[in-house]
Amino acid sequence: MAKDLKIHFFTIVLNGMPFIEKHIERFSKISPAWHWHIIEGVADLKNDTSWSIANGGEIDSSFHKDGLSIDGTSEYINSLKEKYPTQISIYRKLKGEFWNGKKEMVNAPLPFIIEESLLWQIDVDEFWSTTQMNNAYQLFINNPNKFSAFYWCEYFVGRDIVISTRGGYANNPAFEWERTWRFLPHFRWASHEPPTLVEKTFSGEIKVVRNRGIFSHQETEANGLVFRHLAYVDENQLRFKEKYYGYKDAISDWGRLQANKAFPTKLSSYFNWVNDDTLADKTSNLGIMSMHDFFD
Predict the structure, then answer these.
(1) How many CA atoms does the CB half-sphere of 55 hold within 13 Å?
(2) Residue 203 pLDDT
(3) Which of 6, 88, 166, 250 is packed most tightly, with the most Cβ within 10 A?
(4) Per its UniProt entry, which superkingdom is the organism in (predicted)?
(5) Rounded distance between C-alpha atoms, residue 265 and residue 280, angstroms
(6) For the purposes of burial, counting CB atoms within 10 Å of the CB of 145, is it exposed (0-12), middle (13-18) or buried (19 or more)?
(7) Inter-CA distances, 100 with 17, 86, 89, 120, 289, Å
(8) Number of domains into which the chain is organized
(9) C-alpha span between 122 and 22 (Å, rounded)
(10) Which residues contact 256 (CB under 8 A, 6 or more apart)?
(11) Which of 86, 107, 87 is nearest to 39 (CA)?
């Protein structure tokens, strides 16, 4: 195993403003060598996301132009490529074409990663500090037999409202949140929801990479590796999810949650797609930095 690994970040994005602008300042300060693969465009409701069709999900024409972003994301990542020509790669379909689901999007960069490395999924609304990225990297360097890491996250459902429980919605340890992998060039994605990296053995058998050895939630949390997921902090996010995923009344229900005064509260009382006992609470009650302080 290599003593040093380059980090290959990857992000799939459509209309990622203003979140996408906040990542490069952290990447540029980390110790390891890095490369950021940005896959832009509309993912058709196929494969991983086909479940949303039954909910009434659809690709609304108001969200894109010729299959790409309309909020300045395209122009921004083009400017990033000019500033970091050897560290930024952009992947897009031909004009007007959609990606064949998110699985095709996440697989797009893999043929171009030709050395053992650390592969890191960074969704556009997920944030890690520079220290956290350095520490996670060091965990993999120090443990060459580990191939995957799971993490807890601070999952925001408002600018100052965050999920306060674990084991249910948005912090289910059975599959959330696997975000970093030791990558070898023959690995490929079998799915994106949840992310499942696999390898084909010499005998033709397909094996899940995480089974080679994982860092558990407990191990990563002990190293300060709990990331921030700003999933529902802006009305534009709700507008997209209401259409694309078929989350009925998402905007109005989210508005009711923001106006609520009694916390903690059951998230299922507001989000009809949540069907467990997950609780949400104010960041001030939990000692967590609000989005106002973190992002503005």
Answers:
(1) 20
(2) 87
(3) 250
(4) Bacteria
(5) 5
(6) exposed
(7) 23, 27, 20, 22, 38
(8) 1
(9) 12
(10) 270
(11) 107
> For residue 273, is the peptide bond before it cis, meaning its omega torsion is within 30 degrees of 0?
no
Preceding peptide of 194 cis, ω within 30° = yes
> Is residue 1, in this structure, part of any structural domain at all?
no
User: Residue 209 carries which side chain, given as an amino acid letter?
Assistant: V
CA dihedral 132, 192, 198, 184 (to 10 degrees): -40
- Determine the angle formed by the axes of helices 235-244 and 250-259, rounding to 10 degrees: 150
Question: Residue 189: what pLDDT?
Answer: 98
Q: What is the CATH number of the domain that holds 218?
A: 3.90.550
Residue 129 in any domain: the answer is yes
Q: 3-state DSSP call for residue 24?
A: helix
**Where are the strands (E) in the chain, listed by range?**
6-13, 34-40, 88-91, 117-121, 126-127, 148-150, 153-158, 161-163, 178-183, 188-192, 195-200, 206-208, 214-215, 227-229, 265-266, 279-282
The pairing of strands 148-150 and 178-183 is antiparallel
Check: pTM over 0.85? Answer yes or no. yes
Q: Is the pLDDT of residue 128 over 80?
A: yes
Distance separating alpha carbons of residues 294 and 296, to the nearest angstrom? 6
**The sheet that has 206-208: what strands, in order across it?**
188-192, 195-200, 206-208
The whole domain housing 32 covers 6-295
- How many residues can be counted in the chain? 296
Identify the pLDDT of residue 1: 42
197 vs 4, residue with greater confidence: 197
Closest CA to 227 of 164, 140, 155, 138: 155
d(CA 64, CA 86): 28
